[in-house]
Amino acid sequence: MTGIPAFAAPLRAVDTLDVRASGDDLELVAQITVDGKEPNLRGHFPGQAVYPGVFVIETLEQAMREAVGARLSTVRSVRFLAPLLDGDRMVLTATAKRTPDGWDVTGKATLGETTTAKIRASFEEAAG
């Protein structure tokens, strides 16, 4: 991705996105490097930038918007297991399964071999 997509402003939560179709399902790999100089990270926490958990969810939202134009409707479960700090490269892998109402998505964020978050969420097709 280059620049900040209009739907992402003012926060860009995806640097690169790879999407593969697997039958009716999708496999997504979104990556972002945590930039401690990012204005949205000021104060979270002073002297040691921590990528907020809600930004991990935003990464999934932006990946689904970019891939299929779907919008987050429900976070079914989320667990934050390890912090992401300034300079860390998060890799969010997700499987999106088509449903009559949109998509059920299961994702896992990692830093190297460490799982930093697990997410299950539902997405609906964006209007228009």
UniProtKB/TrEMBL annotation:
From which residue to which does the signal peptide run? Answer: none
Q: What GO MF terms are annotated?
A: (3R)-hydroxyacyl-[acyl-carrier-protein] dehydratase activity
Keyword vocabulary terms for this entry: Lyase
The top of its lineage is: Bacteria, Bacillati, Actinomycetota, Actinomycetes, Pseudonocardiales
Which InterPro entries does the record associate with it? Answer: ApeI-like, HotDog_dom_sf
User: According to the UniProt entry, what is the EC number of this protein?
Assistant: 4.2.1.59
ApeI dehydratase-like domain location: 27-98
Q: State one Pfam family annotation.
A: ApeI-like
The protein's name is 3-hydroxyacyl-[acyl-carrier-protein] dehydratase
This protein's species is Amycolatopsis umgeniensis
